[in-house]
Amino acid sequence: MNTAQLLEVRNLKSQFHTRRGVVKAVDGVSFSVGQGEVLGIVGESGSGKSITCLSILRLLPKPAGRIVAGEIRLNGEDLLTKSEAEMQGYRGSRIAMIPQDPMSSLNPVFTIGDQMAAPLKYHLGLVGNRAAEKVEELLAKVNIPSPKQRSKQYPHQMSGGMRQRILGGIGISCDPILLIADEPTTALDVISQDQFIWMLKAIQVERSLSMIWVTHDMSVVAKACDRVAVMYAGRIVETAPVDALFNAPAHPYTIGLMRSIPELSDSREELFSIPGQPPDLLNLPDGCQFAPRCDQMKPVCLEKYPPETILGERHSVNCWLKADHD
Amino acid sequence: MQRYLIRRFFHAVITLFLVSILVFVLVRLSGDPAFVLLGPDAPPEAREAFRRDWGLDKPIVYQYGVWLVRGLHGDFGESMLRKQPALTLVLSHLWNTLQLVLVAMSFSVVFGVAIGIASAVKPSGTADWLGRYFSLLGQSAPTFWVGIMLMLLLAATWNLLPTSGKSGIETFLMPAFTLGWFSTAAVLRISRSSMLDVLESEYIKSARAMGLPQSLVILKYALRNAAITVMTMISLQFIALLGSSVIVETVFAWPGIGRLGVEAIFARDFPLIQALTMVFAAVFISVNLLVDILYGYIDPRIRYT
Amino acid sequence: MTKLKAALRGIPVGAAVILTVVVFLGFFGGLLAPYSPTALNTPGMLLGPFSHSSKGLHILGTDQLGRDILSRICAGTRVSLIVGLSAVFLAGAIGSILGILAGYFGGWVDTLIMRVTDAMFSLPFLVLALVLAAVIGPGFSNIVLILGLVGWAAYARLIRGEVLRIKNEQFVKYAKIAGTRTVVVLARHIFPNVTNSLIVMATLRLGIMIIAEASLTFLGLGVQPPTPAWGSMVAEGRMFLSTAWWISAFPGLAILLTVMSVNILGDWLRVRLDPKFRQT
User: Fold this and answer.
1) CB pairs under 8 A between A and B
2) Neighbouring-strand partners of residue A212
């Protein structure tokens, strides 16, 4: 637990100041990613997973978005103290992101080759033929057939799956030390999803790349991640190694998520879903945010936020039900 | 791309043809040139003679046929008013108008695009404020009045510029400014809103996530994406400028087709009106065609569909 | 009362005041004017602002026939407003009907109407108006007709877009499933939902119509004398520019202020009625 982690996030708080009030999108989040490790961040829409990633890159939409507290240490250095110019140097080269929507994340009026070559030029200084070669190399790496022809084509001439793989290629192009994938498979069909996950997994293993994989799909977690952090209403409620999460989920929310996964062998008639709605981020209640929906809620759950309880090897949870475990 | 262009060209020719028929009919409905040119006091026999001279007594379809055939040979007849070959008259005046329009357009494009983009990149900055007020004024002030007020100030009162006619560079200034004024506002607004839209898009956000420097992101990427809408507006403005030239040329006595057109319409000078309309139609159809070509170049989605 | 206050939230006060004055003058201009807008008074001609003639004080001066400029401007308000509003109404009506037909029925109806609309867009407004003015002739009602016939294209395009969006909504489908006659579907379901955009577009185009009328009148093809109109006042003043600049200046200023108020209020209305309405 004390081996130096690649990325350490401590008590991160990111907020949006809107006309209607302050939205506490990320409200005290702490986690770490080790060398060569894949951390999954799971949660519903609005749980704060994407904002966490944008915060790491310091790309929150201005002027409403602000990081108001916390530390984000990459190899010991706090990213929140860096200047914008330094962050620009980090983005794409040391920390890279694979965005969510392959349809709109590529510029429609420039060729794939042009777009892939841009970070190569700015971070690695590659131009001309050397850049073109590297582009073809990358396209081959992400399983795009006929890379030479494809690099001269435009995004609209390719399928969604191919575009997402290209975005993956752009992500790894400058050999980052941390790769963040923000729900990269959400917009794809099931077959493309699988292709993408296995392709990225192979690259990750080959390069011992540290990754954060954001998703709301538990099957992705099972295939791609080593450890998982479960987020709800802007906080992490449980962190565990993948096996432990699937075999012995501790937090009622996690248990609910597990139950919602339909299984082929299931004889149940109805699909399970957790009753209730996620809370309004403008008016977060005191105490545990999940309590109103929890079937094992106790009075203390509504009053105070539960402390972190260690359950086992790198497995921790924030829940009053387990608080006496310690 | 080629099929796209051929289709467009075909469209253009058909439109030109339809316009010619429409104009021919409309113009003849508008009144009797004999009446206007010879005056209401002229004896009916004189008017009859006039009509016979100009072939106006024949059936309309015959008249159209004759006109069409001659027109395809470049002969648009003679202006009733000025007794010169209509086509040459129109073309020489057209050149004057084009010069004016090009100057006005350069002014409005440079100014409008620059301020529009600056105000999109830095909302609530000086450029934004300037742009907003300028654009409101530009849209609200009638062109003819702006021209007259300019004349009042710069010519009548301070004697800085000549009031009318076309000779040296200084004669271009007031008419071009007046002409370009209204259109600057439109170009400004569209540049600003188009740029704002593009800056919000996912692909620009991805470019930032890749760590690409801000200046590159804006100047190379965003501009190219915004260019498409801006170009459409600019081409629309060219047409609008040609239209407004009617007013500006009247105010500043500029020898262009706008002023010629007004004269021709008042006099019911059929050959001249027809020649004017055909040339005019040809001009804007070519402009549209040119823009379509440029479109295809800038937006690859059109090229490959 | 509170409902009215809520509806008027954020209204640009200056513009609203000016426009109210203008509308007021439009109705009562003839009566309120200090002097007769048409009576000649040759001895008192070409007097500058704030000068006196035998009749009294002329705040904005007199023109070449001794008529009080302020009174003529007041009287001219009626022309500009009525022509402007009527033209917008006519163009809006034609455009909406064509737009609804094109959007709802699609197919060759749509193609035909859109082709015509495209053609109209590629021709300059003023030139078309000029040609029509030559054919139909000048005059008050003719001008309304002409401006309406030339200006419907923008409405058609907008309304068609709206209709395409609406016709795929659930309530329209239910109406069709229930067997409602097409005309009724159009009138009761489609039309009420496009009125918002229609109103916004109309306010944006009113300024253009007012200027168009003034321009045509300036050229001599619009409203004819002796009806006082701002455009013809500016035209008459051209000859006297160096000696009596006020004859052209003030009527033009009236046009500027009116159109500016209309535009400012139009922008406010646009934001109020639909904050998502994108301006092109």
Assistant:
1) 76
2) A39, A180
